[in-house]
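Hi R.,

As promised on Friday, here is the backbone we talked about, encoded as structure tokens. Could you run it through your design pipeline when you get a chance and send me back a sequence?
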């Protein structure tokens, strides 16, 4: 919204002077929410990275005596995106290697999807900049 408001301030007030600028303003309002997609995708990439790191840590230490595995809990963030909270298990426990493999696969899929979202949002932003140039 900040970008749309900043651009709106540059739009002439008279209807006759508006012309193509008015069209650009409406396009900006339509496209601007995708700007947030960059931040949402980046948070998804970071969340996937943390989940993968926690799982890799657990797998690397599965044979360590009295090991307390890390638990990654992903949560949505208001306005879009996600965050991950890492907690250590309260007691020593055996690492579920099969479960960790599936966690790594899920994190990998999330990483790829978030990366693709970031790329599309970046392309959209580039097209918007070209449109306004």
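Update: got your reply. Pasting your designed sequence below so it's all in one thread:
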């Amino acid at each position: 919204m900040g970008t749309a408001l900043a651009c709106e301030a540059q739009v002439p007030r008279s209807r006759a002077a508006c012309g193509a600028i008015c069209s650009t303003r409406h396009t900006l309002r339509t496209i601007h929410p995708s700007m947030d997609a960059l931040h949402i995708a980046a948070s998804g990439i970071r969340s996937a990275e943390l989940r993968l790191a926690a799982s890799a840590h657990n797998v690397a230490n599965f044979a360590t005596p009295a090991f307390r595995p890390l638990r990654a809990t992903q949560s949505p963030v208001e306005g879009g995106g996600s965050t991950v909270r890492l907690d250590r298990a309260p007691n020593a426990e055996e690492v579920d290697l099969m479960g960790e493999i599936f966690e790594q696969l899920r994190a990998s899929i999330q990483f790829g999807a978030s990366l693709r979202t970031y790329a599309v949002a970046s392309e959209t932003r580039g097209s918007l900049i070209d449109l306004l140039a």
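One thing I noticed while checking it: The longest strand covers residues 70-76.

Thanks again,
M.
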